[in-house]
Amino acid sequence: MNMPPSLTEPHRLKLRIEDFTILDRAGVFDAYGKVELIDGVIEVMNAEFRRHNHIKNDLTYRLRSALLR
To answer: What angle do CA 62, 65, 69 make, to 5 degrees?
Structure first.
């Protein structure tokens, strides 16, 4: 068995997709509206956060403009 190296200070351990999937299937995230794994970090978000909403509206505008050409 491979042992992790000795730690001299705390550090973050990023999750793998397999870890995230196990947690998700176990219902760990059920109380949250939307959860994503981004670069190994669990991100809890609301799809209507201001930044997301702005990007969504901009993408819709660009797509509509391109289709109408």
So the answer is: 140
- CA distance readout (Å), 67 to 59, 61, 64: 12, 10, 5
The identity of residue 6, as a single letter, is S
CA 23 remoteness from chain centre: 14
Q: Give the tens place of pLDDT for each residue, 50-63.
A: 777 888 899 999 99
Interatomic CA distance for residues 27 and 21, integer angstroms: 10
Determine contact, residues 21/37, Cβ cutoff 8 Å: no
Place of tokens 């190296």: 5
Task: Give the global pTM.
Answer: 0.57
pLDDT recorded at residue 69? 85
